[in-house]
């Protein structure tokens, strides 16, 4: 019976210690919000009207866009993805993380499979494309879309993180590869 009491007392003490430990400020998560917008490149054809030119430069909410958060200020494919987000209809996404430095990437920079496909597809120059510059690609991967902090001060975390994604035409959408083929007319 004494053994059971000691075991029970040990378990209660351990749980109480864990509860206290889990509420330390360094382990507390804080909410951040990101607002994602997009603009787009005009990709050929007829001369666009002034309205179309303005529309292409106007930031509009980007819904249903996947984003990934990694720790640190530099993207690394070997670093675990901490959070996967998808923006809502207004281009907003909320998340919670502990105090620290983080970086935000999209599926191109989070997906090692995509990078390997590009390296394979553009390994050798073709009629329309130069060979991929792997050193350039490695540097491109490291640079996140956004670097940000999560602060212990809730007021500092209220600032919305704004990011605009500029959508490119097919001939310049793949990083570190030069398109030499025909352009739309």
The ordered H/E elements are: HEHEEEEEHHHEHE
Report the mean per-residue pLDDT as an integer.
88
Spans with pLDDT under 50 lasting ≥5 residues? 17-25
Distance between the termini: 88 Å
Query: Which range best describes the helical content: under 10%, 10-25%, 25-40%, 40-55%, 55-70% or over 70%?
Result: 25-40%
Indicate the proportion of strand residues: 25-35%
Cα shape: flat
Count every beta strand, where a strand is a DSSP E run of 2 or more residues: 8
Q: What is the CATH C-level name? A: Mainly Beta
What does this entry look like structurally?
- The protein has 185 residues and is an alpha+beta fold.
- It has a single domain, classed as Immunoglobulin-like.
- Helix content is 30%, strand content 27%.
- Strands 1, 2, 5 and 8 form a four-stranded mixed beta sheet that branches. The protein has a four-stranded antiparallel beta sheet with strand order 4-3-6-7.
- The model is unreliable at 17-25 (pLDDT under 50).
Kindly summarize this structure in a few lines:
The chain is an alpha+beta fold. Helix content is 30%, strand content 27%.
């Amino acid at each position: 019976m004494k053994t059971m009491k000691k075991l029970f007392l040990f378990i209660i003490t351990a749980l109480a210690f864990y509860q206290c430990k889990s509420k330390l400020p360094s382990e507390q998560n804080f909410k951040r919000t990101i607002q994602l917008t997009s603009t787009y490149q005009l990709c050929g054809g007829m001369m666009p009207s002034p309205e179309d030119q303005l529309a292409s430069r106007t930031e509009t909410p980007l819904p249903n866009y996947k984003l990934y958060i990694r720790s640190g200020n530099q993207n690394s494919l070997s670093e675990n993805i901490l959070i996967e987000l998808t923006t809502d209809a207004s281009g907003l996404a909320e998340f919670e993380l502990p105090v620290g430095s983080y970086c935000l990437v999209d599926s191109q920079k989070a997906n090692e499979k995509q990078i390997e496909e590009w390296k394979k597809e553009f390994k050798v120059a073709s009629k329309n494309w130069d060979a991929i510059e792997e050193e350039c690609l490695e540097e491109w991967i490291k640079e996140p879309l956004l670097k940000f902090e999560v602060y212990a001060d809730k007021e500092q975390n209220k600032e919305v993180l704004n990011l605009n994604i500029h959508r490119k035409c097919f001939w310049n959408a793949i990083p570190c590869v030069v398109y030499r083929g025909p352009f739309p007319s």
